[in-house]
Amino acid sequence: MFEGLKGKLRDVRSRFGASIEKHIEESPAVPSPSPEIHPGEDSFPQGETIPEDRQTGDLFRKGIGESNPDTKPVKDSFFSKVKTLVTEREFILTEKDLSEPLFELEMILLESDVALSVTDAIIAHMRSSLVGNHRKIRQDPDEIVTAALKNALREVLGEGLDLPAFIRSHDRPVKILFTGVNGTGKTTSIAKVAAYLRKEGFSVVIGAGDTYRAGAIEQIRVHAERLGIRLIHHQEGADPSAVLFDTVEYARAHSVDVVLADTAGRFHNRANLMSQLEKIRRIFKPDLILYVDEATAGNDAVVRAAEFEKTIGADGVMLTKVDMDKKGGSAISIAYTIGKPLVFLGVGQEYEDIVLFTPDLIIHEILGEDA
Ligand SMILES: Nc1nc2c(ncn2[C@@H]2O[C@H](COP(=O)(O)OP(=O)(O)OP(=O)(O)O)[C@@H](O)[C@H]2O)c(=O)[nH]1
Ligand SMILES: [Mg+2]
Question: 267-326, pLDDT tens digit by residue?
């Protein structure tokens, strides 16, 4: 998962680190803007010489100590003051220090199919968190860069959506409609989501709303049978709205928690299929429309998601085939671009190959163990 991007980010992180180290070597340290002075403690203003008798630890070992407990706070405060003056030196990175690694990062993101607006947001975040801020000299440069990158990614990835919590807080049955273009993994994902929700303690029924493609009903029937989940279906060529209406009726009659509705794959520019989807939406009245696309489609997935969002609406995204995606661009870009949360990631061909999206999951995957 995301192997290509992971390797390139590792390289650019060390480039950032090298730039920071170069700055520290070549530039004089700057005084801290907020020295650690606490009320009641003795303090030495910036630039003032420390009295000679207070320059070594011997003072504390000899004069002040356990024999006179009342004086102990003075010892501690003085220690912390010496530490502030001696080790808390700082540096401030400039745009010039970071222009090269920032440019390199921008190129890496664009090459990895991260959408332009998302790349801009990440670079802007990196710039504002790294340039112009006071940094402690003893801070590890890689930690500084990794923290900035992590926060930038967190900003564009969003929070996701806790589907079990969503279901618990809605009237039953909760109706979820799966849409998207052909072959992206809608039907397989419905089977995975059904298995996932059942594990979470919900009862599920599936509606075979793809009556268009030959073999589609049989495909979902096999999944439902393997999982032991009830499927409602009509004949091939039937009106999908009618199938899904019946599925909701079944769920109501049997107090089923969740209805998962399959639909035929379609492109947003196919007017007849899109108006069919509009009819499904009116009759089925989904609580959640999940747009399904494959991570491996990169920027195409992001563009298509935006088109679906505009024409039919989407409340969340499921990205499939993440296990086969080396670049990570669509996973990073899709939520930020369409303004809707990533909900699930499909990570393989088995029923259990599904994970509920969290930003940390992607961040950890992209930045590795130390993130
Ligand atoms: N590696 C991998 N393959 C997946 C994943 N999800 C789905 N697939 C595969 O993608 C192919 C297409 O999946 P379907 O579920 O039939 O896709 P669909 O969107 O329903 O297709 P249409 O109904 O024709 O529009 C199948 O071979 C799935 O096994 C995934 O997360 N990882
Ligand atoms: Mg299908």
Answer: 888 888 888 999 999 999 999 999 999 999 999 999 999 999 998 999 999 999 999 999
Q: Whose CA is nearest to atom 26 of ligand 1?
A: 185
Q: Give the pLDDT score at 61.
A: 32
3.40.50.1820, 3.40.50.300, 1.20.120.140, 3.30.70.1650: CATH of 3-30+91-157: 1.20.120.140
Under 8 Å between Cβ of 341 and 318? no
- pTM score, whole prediction: 0.83
pLDDT reading at 50 higher than 50: no
Q: Could you tell me if 286 and 261 are in contact, meaning their C-beta atoms sit under 8 angstroms apart?
A: yes
Say if residue 65's pLDDT is above 70: no
CB 122 within 8 A of CB 152: yes
Domain boundaries, the chain: 3-30+91-157, 163-367
Q: Where are the beta strands (DSSP E) in 90-229?
A: 90-92, 134-136, 174-179, 204-207
Which residue in 181, 207, 142, 123 sits closest to 301, CA to CA?
181
Distance of CA 208 to the CA centre of its chain: 31
Do 20 and 13 touch, CB atoms closer than 8 A?
Answer: no
The CATH class for the domain spanning 163-367 reads: alpha beta
Alpha-carbon gap, residue 296 to 33, rounded angstroms = 48
CA of 222 to the centre of ligand 2 (A): 12
How far CA 206 is from CA of 54, 213, 251, in Å, comes to 77, 17, 9
Instruction: List pLDDT tens digits, range 116-140.
Output: 999 999 999 999 998 887 777 777 8
According to DSSP, residue 14 is labeled H
The total of other beta-carbon atoms located within 10 Å of residue 18's CB is 13
Query: Which residue's CA is minimally distant from atom 30 of ligand 1?
Result: 321
Cα 87 to ligand 1 centroid, rounded to whole Å: 57
- Over 50: is that where the pLDDT of 366 sits? yes
